[in-house]
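Lab notebook page, bench 4
Experiment: in silico fold of construct C2
Operator: M.H.
Input chain length: 184 residues
Purpose: comparison with the prior construct
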Amino acid sequence: MMATGNRAVVDDLALRHLDAAYNLGRWLLGNEQDAADAVHDAYLRAARACDTYAGGNARAWWLAIVRNCCLARLALRNKEKANVAIDDNPVAAERLMPHDESGGVEDQVDGAIRRRQMAMHLDRLPAMFREVLILREIEELSYREIADVLEAPIGTVMSRLARGRALLQKALTDDGTVEAPHGL
C-alpha cells in the first residue's frame, strides 16, 4: 500500500519533470500521442512503486520509469531499426550541437533550419543513441544521471554519447547540411 506522503512526492516529481518526460517519450516513440500515453503509464507505475523508491536522484528515477514505459511500447510495436555503421568522429559532432541562439535574423533562420535538420536526423538514429543524446544535450542530465536512467555504466553512456554524436554528424554531413569536417 502506498503512503500518502510518497504519493505526493511522485505527484510533485511528475509535475516538475513533465516536460522532460514527455520530451524523452516523444523522441523515443516518435509521436506525441504515444509519448503522452507512455508518460501516463510511467506516472501510474511510479505511483504504484513509490513505496519502493530507495532515495537518490528522483529525476533520474522518474525518467528511468518513463524510459522503461517507452521501451515497453516499442517492444509492442515490434519495430526494430537497423544500426548504421559510420566512422567515429565525436569531436566533429560536438561542434554541430546547438550552442548560441543570439544573433541577427539570418542567424535565427539558419538556426531554425539547422534545428529542423538536426531533429530529423536525430529522429532517425537508433534508439540507444537517440535517448542518450536527448538526455544529455536536451535535458542536460549529467553522465551519472543518464547512467541511472539507463541502468548502465557511465562508460557505456559516454560511448553511446560519442557514437550518437558521430552518427548525427555523419547524417548531417551526408545530406549536405554541414560541410564534412577535416579528416572525414
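Observations: Confidence is low (pLDDT under 50) at residues 79-87, 95-99. Residues 18 and 122 are 21 Å apart (CA to CA).
Next step: discuss at group meeting.
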